[in-house]
Design goal:
The protein is built from 8 helices and 13 strands. With about 250 residues, it is of the alpha/beta class. It folds into 2 domains: about 80 residues, 3-Layer(aba) Sandwich (Cytidine Deaminase, domain 2); about 130 residues, AICAR transformylase, duplication domain (Cytidine Deaminase, domain 2), CATH 3.40.140. The strands form 3 sheets. Strands 8-13-12-11-9-10 form a 6-stranded mixed β-sheet. A 5-stranded mixed β-sheet has the order 2-1-3-4-5. Strands 6-7 form a two-stranded antiparallel ribbon. The relative contact order is 0.13.
């Protein structure tokens, strides 16, 4: 995962750590400049060499080889944080934010969803691959500032729209980033084509969903619960999308 200003700008899985990093970087290589990289495997020399190729503030990893440490030691302003074993991400707990005159304390968002808990609401049910992409996108959306829209395909983020004042703009920004990535890397088409799209909260109108469809998404995962759910579902059916409801909302501020 590559993070910039507390938002993920590229996340990927891969057979190797290097493959995962390269795929995450390709999602938004512009925003990755000066960012923070987090990995869930021990850092090897090949991946460290690739990471050192651009300006990066911090790399967090469970551990790192001596070769990887030596590569980073040559970078003046790069900090390597070795975390060891991380706590269970599904643990309960509290988050604290300061406000004028006090603090806001609330339960941390440790919600998770399984395939069995998803509710198909459209005429077309998602394929197994679309479900996998939906759940991956949903996980990333949980850690993206609202209004959050995340496109994902084959275990890689295609485009991320974060922190906008409306959901439609988040969908459009994420699609723009995907188009720019395709142009940068010479791909035949953006990764949003045939992707799944996650929305951290419900679509209050169909415009955001239709923007995702225009970007090429074929499956949608969202909480549901809007008074206009029927309108949004009808729009998804008209566009040939498969859509699932989680019944759970993420809303990170």
């Amino acid at each position: 995962m590559i993070v910039k200003h507390a938002n993920p700008c590229g996340v990927a899985t891969g057979e190797t750590l290097l493959e995962a990093y390269q795929a995450a970087l390709a999602c938004d290589s512009v925003s990755a400049f000066g960012g923070i990289i987090a990995v869930n495997r021990p850092l090897d020399a090949a991946t460290a060499e690739a990471m050192a190729g651009i300006f990066t503030e911090v790399v967090a990893a469970p551990d790192a080889s001596e070769e990887a440490k030596a590569i980073f030691a040559k970078k003046k302003n790069l900090r390597l944080l070795l975390t060891g074993a991380l706590p269970d991400p599904h643990r309960a707990g509290l988050t604290v934010k300061s406000i004028a005159g006090g603090y806001l304390v609330q339960s941390r968002d440790n919600g998770r969803i399984t395939r069995e808990e998803l509710k198909v609401v459209t005429k077309r049910a998602p394929t197994e691959q679309e479900l996998t992409d939906c759940l991956f996108a949903w996980t990333i959306a949980k850690h993206t500032k609202s209004n959050a829209i995340v496109y994902a395909k084959d275990g890689v983020t295609a485009g991320i729209g974060a922190g906008q004042m409306n959901r439609r703009d988040s969908a459009r920004i994420a699609a723009i980033k995907a188009k720019e990535a395709a142009e940068t890397y010479g791909w035949a088409q953006p990764r949003t084509i045939g992707s799944a799209v996650a929305s951290d909260a419900f679509f209050p109108f169909s415009d955001g969903l239709l923007s995702a469809a225009e970007a090429g998404a074929t499956a949608v995962i969202q909480p549901g619960g809007s008074i206009r759910d029927d309108e949004v579902i009808a729009a998804a059916d008209a566009a040939g999308l498969a859509m699932v409801f989680t019944g759970m909302r993420h809303f990170r501020h």
